[in-house]
Amino acid sequence: SNKNEEIQRLNGIYDRMLEKAGVDVIKERAVLAGPNQVKVGQTIYNAKKILVATGSWPFVPEFPGSEYAITSNEAFYLHELPKRVLVVGGGYIAVEFACIFNGYGSTVTQAYRGELFLRGFDQDVRTFLAEQMRGKGIDVRFNTTVASIVRVENGEFQVTFGDGSQLVVDLVMYATGRLPKSKDMGLEKVGVAMDKKGAIIVDKFSRTNIESIFAVGDVTDRMNLTPVALAEGHCFADTEFGKKPRSVSYENVPTAVFSQPTIGTCGLTQDEAEERFGKDALDIYKTSFRPLKHTLTKSAEKVMMKLIVQRSTDLV
Predict the structure, then answer these.
(1) Bridging pattern class, strands 50-52 and 213-215
(2) Quick check: 146 and 159 in contact, CB under 8 A?
């Protein structure tokens, strides 16, 4: 498929970059054998410094019928488009896939246990997106949990929600969170400190409690965004090998959600700004309109823009 070809193309680019940089790539499973040792197959490699960057993995909670739910991993390998989809979750991935399936023509229901999805984003942004998604025909249900999934005739699935109501769909996708990919890597044996979710605990320079072992990206569960992981890796290289000690700032990181419409945001939410500066110290500028391109498409999709400004300084 086009998707697989694109992934192969991108992987090829990275493979060539590594090759040109003189990196030896060993495509086998590795585990830590000591503070300065990595075991690959039957071979032990010694290293002054070890960097763990294994990322995270989708997590589906256990409940009756949970084995029938897929995750974003499997969603990329579906052989046909499901006519009716239930997406469970309220983060980036859940929102994006609800919009993707809807865009392809599936009948989509999105269920989220909380009051409103995309926790951590500005309240107006979250509310606006929920309205827009519903306007596109997505059945967005908040304060909703799944009690069970039962496989019925013709490969369909009957989903029972916490309130007893039911829904029959062709696919159930869970996007309720990801866990650090840190199991069975020898981390515990070496004594690397991790939290209860399995995230490797590091300082601002990505150092673990073991002097020779470092970790970056989702496996540390700090700010789980691809550009942030890249920045953490760059800072690690500069600090440990470039004699330029520096760490990542997690303030004012631009963030995008590829929903329909898309979200682009940077800086404090209104609630955060009010807490930091006081409600009376802010000016809030907000507008919503149908963009010019949709005068031709006749789409009802709107744009919402919002600026939060500190009145005394005009700081956005």
Answers:
(1) parallel
(2) yes
